[in-house]
């Protein structure tokens, strides 16, 4: 082998080694950058976790364990992610309330959770005088959403304008709750009542009595009752379609483990009816004018008017 050929081969080998070294260095640099990014994200995650624990309590470390108590600190955010179009539903309820609320009457939200809906209804009807707004909630973990530090089962004024007041009955079993007007004056006094995804968690044996109380003992003539519920489809094929479409929607916000955990919990708590059964139950207690005003997957909102 002559010297020139040897020199050429040696130079090429050297260039290949340099290129290999540069490639390895570049790979190491990229790997280091990825590792640094993971560390940065881990620090952010740890910081956010500490922030959530400080704000929401120790159960924030284990968000996957679903319960209404665990969700209470951020229940509004959770239900907005769980029910597609929930913002629009609340907008509709707020607007519907303006057709019914009258001076010198009361308004009730049965199962008010954070109290957002009853506050919005009051704000939308702020020009109507002498209206008392009541939120009824059975879970004491929602206490932290109300400005009074000492509710503890007592009625407390928490929002007030010149003539109207919001009061919160908490904790209070919705099944045993009675409108103050009914207990004191034995007269109907409510112009508008709301139950948003509450009745489905009430034992079936108590539902008819609750609806009967609303119609016969609470609502005034011309009063409106908004009932929002999750329902079964009338047909197995439709039910299968709705279930899978709904699950696909929720996967945007929740992991498979969180979805399964919640389904297992709700299977024990929620006792659903069909839309037809709910409407028949409303008619059975006396409602005649009933209209579905909102629907998304198998979630519906109905407005029932007391005419008699």
What key attributes describe this structure?
308 residues, alpha/beta, Rossmann fold, 10 helices
CA radius of gyration is 29 Å
The CATH class of the largest domain is Alpha Beta
The largest sheet is:
9 strands, mixed
CATH structural architecture of the largest domain: 3-Layer(aba) Sandwich
- The third-level CATH topology of the largest domain is Rossmann fold
List segments where confidence is low: pLDDT < 50 over at least 5 consecutive residues. 52-64, 149-160
The CATH superfamily of the largest domain is: Vaccinia Virus protein VP39
Q: Helix fraction?
A: 40-55%
Estimated structural class: alpha/beta
The run of helices and strands is HHHHEHEEEHEHEHHEHEE
Please specify the SSE layout and strand pairing.
Elements: H1 3-56, H2 68-71, H3 75-82, H4 86-97, E1 105-110, H5 116-124, E2 131-136, E3 157-160, E4 165-169, H6 180-184, E5 190-196, H7 204-218, E6 219-232, H8 236-250, H9 256-269, E7 273-274, H10 275-285, E8 289-296, E9 299-305
Parallel strand pairs: 1-2, 1-5, 2-4, 5-6, 6-7
Antiparallel strand pairs: 3-4, 6-9, 8-9
Overall description:
By secondary structure, the chain is an alpha/beta fold. Helix 4 (86-97) crosses helix 5. It contains 10 helices and 9 strands. The longest helix is centred in the first third of the chain and has 54 residues, at 3-56. The chain folds into 2 domains: 1-62, no CATH class; 75-305, Vaccinia Virus protein VP39 (Rossmann fold), CATH 3.40.50.150. Strands 1, 2, 3, 4, 5, 6, 7, 8 and 9 form a 9-stranded mixed sheet that branches. It is elongated. It has helices spanning 3-56, 68-71, 75-82, 86-97, 116-124, 180-184, 204-218, 236-250, 256-269, 275-285; strands spanning 105-110, 131-136, 157-160, 165-169, 190-196, 219-232, 273-274, 289-296, 299-305. Helix 5 (116-124) links the parallel strand 1 and strand 2.
